[in-house]
Design brief:
Elements (H helix, E strand, L loop, with lengths): L9 E9 L1 H5 L2 H19 L3 E7 L9 E7 L2 H12 L8 E9 L3 H6 L10
Antiparallel strand pairs: 1-3, 1-4, 2-3
Helix pairs in contact: 2-3
Length: 121
């Protein structure tokens, strides 16, 4: 069996904390800022990414939100981060507290096993 050549998708859990500047904006201003300042930069620099957003300020004082970014490979993920760093998202509207990057079920792929951590009931 030949070695697998394609890279597994990359998932990044971006733990962020809102800044006073972001919180001073109205909800509509926040939506406008994201759609006019952040999304165009991402779309101009990369394809093959998707994101999901989770509010966590109800349960954590350290981070207010978690963005889950999925990229089709490591290079795409790097282009995504480069794009975000060139926008007010990075360190102006949000403080990036931590980045946790991995591949889903990487151990299973490495050892040719079925994933045991993914449970569907």
């Amino acid at each position: 069996m030949p070695a697998e050549k394609s890279e597994p998708p990359v998932t990044a859990f971006m733990l962020v904390k809102t800044t006073p500047e972001w919180l001073a904006l109205t909800v509509q201003e926040r939506v406008d800022a994201f759609t006019t300042q952040v999304l165009p930069a991402i779309e101009a620099k990369t394809t093959g990414v998707r994101s999901r957003f989770y509010d966590t300020e109800f349960y954590s004082a350290r981070v207010t939100d978690v963005w889950v970014w999925e990229a089709e490979d490591h290079h795409t993920y790097q282009r995504l981060i480069d794009a975000l760093r060139e926008t007010p998202f990075w360190d102006r509207y949000f403080e990036v507290v931590d980045l946790l990057v991995g591949t889903e079920n990487g151990y299973a792929r490495t050892y040719g096993l079925e994933p045991v951590a993914t449970i569907t009931t």
